[in-house]
Amino acid sequence: MLRRVHPRTARSGPTGHDQVVENLGGVLTLSPRPGDGTPEISWGDTFFYYAPDGVVPRAQPFATIVTKDYPDDGSSRLDRPNTFRLNIFAGKEAFIERTGHTPHDHAANPADPSIADTLFPHPVYGAQAWLAVVNPGPRTATAVADLLRSAHHLARSRYQRRESHADN
């Protein structure tokens, strides 16, 4: 079984994004580990879902924390000591506001995804309006908090739409 953790125990950087997530409400935080039936590649990472009923939804998480390079995703250099990446589903509007271009144009506007405390389009999921930051810190604290609140709001809205359709 997946370990469900209180967000305050999730791996977090100096931005206090764990407190932001904790205060959002309805968040299910999952941290896969050995022996819980999850793929080994996910062990040590953290996944944040909007799930007020505590049931893992079929939907994607609204944010994740990854602690290692994944296959075809090594550009953030998460193999360095004490390095992790916070990934947040921004949605198209927030993505454009933060980057100055559409999600589909992210490849034409390259950023170095290994620089700490810098917001950038996710190296793999940028075209789907995901943003990321390696080792969030003081420079990105406000943006990270705003993006987490927005991502949670988007996830909650999708959940409520699904629930209202299920009731009809």
From TrEMBL:
Residues 1-20 are annotated as: Disordered. Residues 20-163 form the DUF6194 domain. It comes from the Bacteria. InterPro entries: DUF6194. This is DUF6194 domain-containing protein.
